Amino acid sequence: SSGFWTLTELAAQRGQIADKVAAAKFGTPSPIDDPVREQQILDSVAAKAPGLGLDAASVVRFFRDQIEANKVVQRGLYARWTTHPGSRPPGRPDLATEVRPVIDRLNAGLLTELAATRDARARPSCDARLAVTARLVDARRGLDRLHSVALGESVRSACSHR
Ligand SMILES: C=C(O[C@@H]1C=C(C(=O)O)C=C[C@H]1O)C(=O)O
């Protein structure tokens, strides 16, 4: 199942960067949901899809799931930090200069991997292979339940054979 390793690894990294996103926003007026930023990402990946041999609507669906999963993590962390103030992050990273550039790189990598795995994602074996890979990445990264669930959600529409 090594074919889906990089794709799954990047999705896991994207879910873990949500910790920094949440830390950047927690205790500030900036809401977890930023529809303008989300639309910019979706428009950008949709525009790049045809040149990579990918269906724009499928790519948008994949990134919508990535974004939803990211917000699931952010909300989970807000709840944790509200209940347990001692677990709050010590600093506040800058969203625009420190966090979003990392997300942009992960988005670019994910797009590249969607193209690299296009044929494998179209096969019936995709679901099982992706599930195995997600468990491996999960274990390797020692994800907690919140990030583990988010990883599963974030790749749920990666297989294209349905
Ligand atoms: C990650 C952020 O938080 C949310 C999640 C996003 C994402 O996963 O790309 C984009 C916008 C926000 O709705 C952010 O604001 O950058």
TrEMBL record:
Occurrences of domain Chorismate mutase (ranges): 1-78
Keyword Signal: yes
GO molecular function, one term: chorismate mutase activity
UniProt-listed Enzyme Commission number(s): 5.4.99.5
Alphabetical keyword list: Isomerase, Signal
Catalytic activity: chorismate = prephenate
Domain of life: Bacteria
Pathway(s) this gene product operates in, as recorded in its UniProt entry: Metabolic intermediate biosynthesis; prephenate biosynthesis; prephenate from chorismate: step 1/1
GO biological process, one term: chorismate metabolic process
Classification via Pfam families: CM_2
Protein's organism: Amycolatopsis coloradensis
EC class of the enzyme, as a word: isomerase
Protein name per the record: Chorismate mutase
Keyword Ligase: no
